[in-house]
Amino acid sequence: MLESLCGELFPKVFPIFLCDRGSEFSDPERIEHSRNAKPRAKVYFCDPLQSQQKPKCEKNHVEIRKVLPKGESDFDALSKPDMAVLMSHVNSYGREALGWAAPYDLAQLTLPTNLLDGLSIGRIPAEEVTLKPYLLSHAIAGK
Questions:
Q1: Who has the most CB within 10 Å: 2, 21, 103, 123?
Q2: Using CA atoms, how far apart are residues 49 and 58, in angstroms rounded to an integer?
Q3: What are the beta bridge partners of residue 45?
Q4: Does residue 59 contact residue 130 with C-beta atoms inside 8 Å?
Q5: Could you tell me which residues come within 8 angstroms of residue 71 by beta carbon, excluding any fewer than 6 positions away?
Q6: Is residue 67 packed enough to be buried (19+ CB in 10 Å), middle (13-18) or exposed (0-12)?
Q7: Nearest residue to 58 (alpha-carbon basis) of 20, 101, 15, 106
Q8: b vs e for 83-108, b when ≥16 Cβ sit within 10 Å of the residue's Cβ?
Q9: How do residues 117-137 score in pLDDT, each as one tens digit?
Q10: Which CB contacts under 8 angstroms, 24+ apart, belong to 43-46?
Q11: Cβ contacts of residue 9 below 8 Å, gap of 6+?
Q12: Would you say the pTM of this structure is higher than 0.85?
């Protein structure tokens, strides 16, 4: 899907994938090659329990866990539109490490428009960003 959204820019946008050992990355050959077997990217794996090897991803995980607390969240209750809402809020939140710019703003400058649009990720005004469980309350156990 990412390749179809980025088109010919895919290898420039995603030259590498830095992955953990999750089952979603269990077929690195398929990630590295297009359907026609043409090489398109390289996959590298972090060492187990070494979150500092991908700190920018970990910051997103911290923000996601504000909405979907560990041990309280039902990820099976989330739809693709739910994920788009979540990522729109997470990526619209200004970050100190980015001079208080929002990741979405930087992505909009560097990524193909088709990618953000195709993932249904949009900019949420700063005063409307919500990083609390009530954003996706239907996915919180006991709600």
A1: 103
A2: 12
A3: 19
A4: no
A5: none
A6: buried
A7: 20
A8: bebbbbbbbbbebeeeeeebbbeeeb
A9: 999 999 999 999 999 999 999
A10: 43/16, 43/17, 43/19, 44/16, 44/17, 44/18, 44/19, 45/18, 45/19, 45/20, 45/21, 46/18, 46/19, 46/20, 46/21
A11: 112
A12: no
As a whole number of Å, the CA-based R_g of the chain is: 16
Domain ranges of the chain: 1-53, 55-143
- Quote the tokens at residue 4: 């179809």
Tokens of 100: 């208080």
The 10 Å Cβ neighbour count of residue 110 is 7
d(CA 51, CA 60): 12
